Amino acid sequence: MAKLFIKQAEQYAAARPSYPTKLFEYIASKTPCHDLAWDVGAGSGQASRWLAGIYKNVIATDTSSKQLEFAAKLPNVRYEITPPTMSSLEIEKLVAPESSVDLVTVAQALHWFDLTNFYSNVKHVLKKPNGVIAAWCYTNPEVNAAVDKVFQRFYDEKLGPHWDKARRLVEDGYRGIEFPFEKVDNDESTESQSLPIKFVTEKEMVFEEYMTYLRSSSAYQTAKEKGLELLTEEMEGEFADSWKEDGKEKKVVRFPIYLLIGRVGEDRV
Predict the structure, then answer these.
(1) What was the pLDDT predicted at 194?
(2) How would you label 176-212 residue by residue, b for 16+ Cβ within 10 Å and e otherwise?
(3) Distance separating alpha carbons of residues 140 and 151, to the nearest angstrom
(4) Which of 19, 26, 66, 191 is the most exposed place for a label (fewest CB within 10 A)?
């Protein structure tokens, strides 16, 4: 996973959307204590920054030191570079002791993980029985009919052959991903009453920012490493023409978010 994002780490930090307050308020409402959160696959720290305002301490980990270079330095956030898989001993050394974590979060990264190893680590560090894991992904940007039409063709025909197979889990809004945790109570503040729960985040962009977002994708970078430029002059021209149609330089870009959330429950022998 880390190799796919190292080269475009600066683009990723600049172009990717932040997450809505409503998402973190909902997640935090499901954890009885707000002492310690572990943000896994933290990247450039979009989620870590929010968690730092709610939890006394945050441990933010990633396999990519390059990504973490762009994360905000906050007094109650500790950043750690970790291997892709860890034993219980490594988890206790690098992250936290057994049964000490209130919340584990994974933003736009769960589909990359070795889930057997990761879920074992989550169950090791979460407080029993009410420790919570929350994992979410966001899907394709939505601008307007003109831009979205060009994007969909670009996504299907150009990016499509270069996505890792794990991307399919994102396209499905994490509906097909294994998630062996107990349910938490849903409430009327969310758009859906079953997993995944849907939220929406918005980011105001000018055209160049939108193009930077497209270039920050792992599929684009994979193609570029093979010597293929997917955003050719012709392709970029099509995007530019569609962007100009409504006469507005800045546009609100919407990203649907899909949340999985669960409690660790009691230890079962």
Answers:
(1) 83
(2) ebebebeebeeeeeeeeeebbbebebebebebeebbb
(3) 9
(4) 191
